[in-house]
Write a structure and sequence with these properties.
2 copies of one chain form a homodimer. The radius of gyration of chain A is 24 Å and the shape is elongated. By secondary structure, chain A is mostly helical. Helix content of chain A is about 85%, strand content about 0%.
């Protein structure tokens, strides 16, 4: 195989990697949503230990465990940031809903007051 | 879906990611071997630009391009280190072969000298 042929192969692998990373990101977003509902924290050290153990157990080389862990540290960082964003936007949406409900109730109360006065 | 079910899904995705990263690493090693034969450098900025462009083009979200690039910077770093190791071990093997050939020739020369003296 020539270097050019190997590079075409790597470009294909990279597109597959982007697809898997995107799917993993969507799963992390979903967990972010579920955490918003249950008040669980984004950072869960025990869960992260399980992730690293799973990754090392799946590793058959040629990357040394330490190098694979380096890549995964970055993946986890990025996923955590995504989950924080998801949680924040969920909480903003909830706060906006509470605000809308409160304004609605106040308006109803005012309307009812006005009704009484007529 | 519960958080537990999503985590089982993520563990499966992680094992698939490890498989793809390993395959990409093997391809990088092969390129390292080919580079050893052609004296190409490990660091090729133009090639890395193509890799990042390919990754961004494949990205359909939910990760922002900048976050995906962060992950890829780490992947490229690790692959470059692997390629450097591959090149170094290739060159050590070549140097050892040259040394063996040289010793062999010297031994032949000595044997031939001894032969003449007899």
């Amino acid at each position: 195989m020539t270097i050019e042929e190997m590079r075409i192969r790597i470009d294909v692998l990279d597109r597959q990697l982007v697809e898997l990373l995107s799917e993993r990101a969507r799963a992390a977003q979903t967990i972010g949503n579920l955490k918003a509902a249950t008040s669980l924290p984004v950072y869960e050290p025990e869960r992260e230990k399980i992730i690293y153990a799973n990754v090392r157990a799946a590793n058959k080389g040629p990357l040394p465990d330490i190098e694979l862990t380096h890549i995964y540290e970055r993946i986890i960082d990025v996923m955590r940031a995504l989950q924080r964003n998801e949680l924040a936007s969920q909480r903003n949406a909830q706060a906006a809903q509470v605000e809308r409900d409160r304004s609605g109730l106040a308006a109803d109360a005012r309307a009812s007051e006005t009704g009484k006065k007529q």
